[in-house]
Amino acid sequence: MSVATESAATTHDAHHGEPTGLWSWITTVDHKRIGIMYFLTSIFFLLVGGLEALLIRIQLFKPENDFISAELYNQLFTMHGTTMIFLVAMPMAVAFFNYVVPLQIGARDVAFPRLNALSYWIYLFGGLYLNASWFVGQAPNTSWVGYANLTSTQFSPGLNVDFWVLGLSILGVSSIMGGVNFITTIINLRAPGMKLMRMPLFTWMTFVTSFLLITALPVIAVALIMLAFDRFFSANFFNVAAGADPVLWQHLFWIFGHPEVYILVLPAFGVISDVIPAFSRKPLFGYPVVVYAGVLIGFIGWGVWSHHMFTSGMGPIADSFFVATTMIIAIPTGVKIFNWMATMWGGAIRFTTAMNFAVGLVALFTVGGLSGVMHASAPVDLQQHDSYFVVAHFHYVIVGGILLGMFSGLYYWFPKVTGRYLSEKAGAWHFWTTMIGFNLTFFPMHFSGMFGMPRRTWTYQSELGVQLYNQMSTVGGFILGISTLIMLYNVLKSAKSGAPAGSNAWGAPSLEWSIPSPPHHYNFPALPEVRSREPMWHDDERAAIEAVTLAHPAKEPEMPGPSFWPIVVASGVTATWALVMTGVWWVPLIGLAYTTFGVFMWAFEDPFKHLESSH
Amino acid sequence: MAEAAAVAHDDHHYTSTGLNSWKLGFWTLIGSECLFFGTLISTYMVYKGQSIVGPFSGDVFDIPLTTISTFVLLMSSLAMVLALDGVQRGNRKLSMAWLGVVIVLGATFLGFQVYEFNHFYHVGLGLDTNLLGSSFYVLTGFHGAHVFFGVVWLTTLFVMSARGKLPPSKALNVEIAGLYWHFVDVVWIVIFVLVYLIQ
Amino acid sequence: MSSHADAHGHGEGGHASVGFYWLIGIILAVLTALEVAAYYMHETLGSLEVPILLGLSVAKFILVVMFFMHLKFDSKLFAWVFLAGLVLAVFVVSFLMTLYHVVPGWTAAVTGVA
Questions:
Q1: Tag placement on chain A: N or C end, fewer CB within 10 Å?
Q2: Which residues contact A433 (CB under 8 A, 6 or more apart)?
Q3: Is residue C109 very low, low, confident or very high in pLDDT (cuts 50, 70, 90)?
Q4: What's the chief localization of this chain (chain C) (predicted)?
């Protein structure tokens, strides 16, 4: 946070109405500041989740190791998965949604700026609450999928699952509100002439992802509510003795969980669909097809969930259906891969770090996609289910796809955020250590899985013959850890002393590159008129737009003022959920009353009241 | 020329579609709520008739009573559109009267629900008794919580109206509260048939 | 589209008359009465009871959404963002119902409870 504060302070103090200091960050409703806070928080949790992964890797370095206890091991892999998905991958994408989307569509902010701040604070408090479980030594320990009825009070009597079920419920609220906000923003706040089919691909994928957020998150919310009722009020939703079917949890979890996979990966696809054309000096090949493929992935993503459940005995009819849909969804994904390659074909390619990461994504995601098609087949999946082969598969998708995409976006948009380039030299180190460390960690897992090493198991016997693969994975894991530290060093150093960047740092085509770097708090002095898909690549259109966007307005546009109520309501929401833990039904109502107070203060607050006093 | 066009579009209320953002966002949220209630209803339907021990739905449901409360909620929807119409016309008496009717009918529905829950509990159907108890109370309980929230929201609007702070220019506030209220009503239309009438 | 849209806070919608709202309200009441009647006549109606009940409730749903929520008069965009959620919700309900109740013996096979 301090990094961004300083850069904002040095470049903006010429402008009035740009407050600084801690209080201004707590009460901010500016989408750019919220995006920066999202990013830094997700990096913090990346370090936490990474540390958990390294402890797991040390434990697995040799057979029958007892570096950590089996109980702690359960907590570590559960929190590693939960943290990386809900506290790192999703919010890091949301950081880019926040910073980039309004700039790409020519908007001054998102549709609901205070709601946006609320989403961030709930995410932060929910993440802290979830991790507070470490301090009582009872972190969640039933894996990130939390299958019933292992999560029942009978088999998990401690606080572990309580933290998990309540923490995820809190985070879900944040995601649903974010989804509503971005759908409304993208439909309603596009600059004149910014038709849907002129929007940059990143904005398009944000749009699709937002629909997945608002539709998939309620499903897991209900499943979590049911689990909470089972645990706190002795309901029977997953109680086998009462005739309940624990497989229902699996259905509900994966009805959410599979769209969730696309919630994670589509933003990364969006990033590189902007990065690859920018560094190939060529418009995206087959733009409409890439858009439709993204929409189709989002849609078909709803019909494949049970391929996570082939071993649960659904019967041949249901199995066949989900085999078919799963294989079909590979088609639009493959279409995108070919579109990216065709965009690069014959282009004037510049291999900057951002481009390196984008190309790395295309290669590594394809590996993960191929192993995915393998266990799309139910008989094959029966062999691979819950083995390290699956762990290899989804890390190729999630790290090779999502994290590389996010890093690509970091190098691409950093100059816009700070006005300075990230160091390309440190970037090269970051990229190559990531590539080597990543492949060394996860490629051997295909083999250890094939040899029969089950996932989520504390240790293994030397007779299994997987020691070498595990040692490779552990060494690779530490190289990945070092690469993350290089990235952190690069970000901290370049924010202060990186080479200065102009408004269009890369000669890229979209609207966010038409305004100064870093942007003014109002983004656009006046709204530009867009006439094409690549406005900054057509000289007369660019000149017309920059005449508007780089102009100094006689009077700054009026922006909504800071608000204290989002953080109040966020703390109320978190407290309400957390107080459910007391097990006394009326105690959460205290939190609810406090939340209600915050909501009323919010509702009757005039967002523009600060202007009356200064006029 | 571009500048002139830009300046013309430059005000707080500009949207690319000409639609109000609050209303659009609220419809999106309603789309999201469909999945929330859809999942609760799915669970109820999956567990329908699967309870091992009684009481079963045939033992506890009182169709005439629920028909009355269903009718009450439906008519509150009618009162809601009439209240909105009153606010849009700037007729404060009319809007206050109909808002009051919605609130009373909503509270009546909640009263029926409290009576129903209490009655079921006393004939032996607790949250922890069987699958029916769990899935029924959680589904209808969350619907009831939505009704309760709606009553609080509409009461706030009623007070604003009474203080003369609900002129036609603020009709959108009432319209969005109305969207919420009607949505809660259509959820009950689905629940009434799937939970109560089809057994 | 229409520039005066948010001025009176009614989207693009035309105003329906008060009489029209009353008419819809009466139709809704009648449909509810028919539903309850169908419930009590289930022996006469036999296998038709469930389709009739579903049809009546769909009709009520559509009436409220189209007229009370003004979706018929309002911008198609509102309908689209709503339908995105509604269609998926119907999909989820029907798919789970199919898995659990239509595929024969499925629940029994999984839970061991008939």
A1: C
A2: A479, A480, A482, A483, A486
A3: low
A4: membrane
Task: Tell me, rounded to whole angstroms, the distance of Cα A521 from its chain centroid.
Answer: 25
Mean pLDDT of chain C: 80
> What is the sign of the dihedral through the CA atoms of A66, A70, A76 and A78?
positive
* Tokens linked to A9: 């302070």
Map A573-606 to HEC letters: HHHHHHHHCCCCCCHHHHHHHHHHHHHHHHHCCC
C54 touching B (Cβ < 8 Å): yes
Please answer yes or no on whether B127 and A179 come within 8 Å at the CB atom: no
**DSSP secondary structure code for residue A500 in this structure:** B
Of C8, C53, C88, the CB nearest to B197: C53
First to last CA, chain A: 31
Distance of alpha carbon C97 from alpha carbon C45, whole angstroms: 23
Residues 284-343 of A with CB under 8 A from C: 302, 312-315, 317-318
List pLDDT tens digits, range A128-182: 999 999 999 999 999 999 999 999 999 999 999 999 999 999 999 999 999 999 9
Min Cα separation B135/chain C (Å): 15
- Nearest residue to A534 via CA among A277, A326, A319: A277
Q: Give percent helix, percent strand, percent coil of chain B, each to the nearest 5.
A: 80, 0, 20
Greater pLDDT, C114 or C36: C36
Residue B153 distance to chain A (closest CA, Å) = 10
CA B31 to chain centroid, in Å, comes to 14
Cβ within 8 Å, pair C57-B190: yes
Mean pLDDT of C25-47: 92
Asked if A255 reaches chain C (Cβ–Cβ under 8 Å), the answer is yes
Asked if residue C113 lies in contact with residue B52, where contact means CB atoms within 8 angstroms, the answer is yes
Angle, helices A316-344/A287-300, rounded to nearest 10 degrees: 160
Pick the closest to residue A222 from C50, C88, B37, B56 (CA basis). B37
| Other chains touching C, judged by 3 or more CB pairs under 8 Å | A, B
As a whole number of angstroms, the distance between CA B199 and CA A409 comes to 54
Does B24 contact A187 at a Cβ distance shorter than 8 Å?
A: yes
The Cα A9–Cα B70 span in angstroms is 59
Q: Is the dihedral of CA A269, A274, A275, A277 positive or negative?
A: positive
Helix, strand, coil % in chain C, rounded to nearest 5: 75, 0, 25
For the stretch A89-129, pLDDT in tens is 999 999 999 999 999 999 999 999 999 999 999 999 999 99
The nearest CA of chain B is from the CA of C65 a distance in Å of 8
Q: What pLDDT, on a 0 to 100 scale, did the predictor assign at position C103?
A: 53
Positions in chain A short of pLDDT 50:
1-16, 615
Low-confidence ranges of chain B (pLDDT < 70): 1-13
State the CB neighbour count (10 A cutoff) for residue A583: 11
Q: How many CB pairs under 8 A join A and C?
A: 34
In this prediction, residue A556 carries a pLDDT of: 85
A454 by DSSP, 3-state: which?
Answer: strand
**A243 with B128: Cβ contact below 8 A:** no
A196 touches chain C (CB under 8 A): no
- CB of A216 within 8 A of CB of B38? no
- Cβ of B16 and A191 within 8 Å? yes
What per-residue string of b and e applies to A218-242 under the rule 16 or more CB within 10 Å gives b?
bbbbbbbbbbbbbbbbebbbbbbeb
Nearest Cβ partner for B10 among A189, A221, A527 = A527
Structure tokens that stand for A118 in this block = 């609320």
Q: What is the pLDDT of residues B64-83, one digit of tens each?
A: 999 999 999 999 999 999 99
> What 3-state class would DSSP assign to A249?
helix
Task: Say yes or no for a CB contact (<8 Å) between A184 and B50.
Answer: no
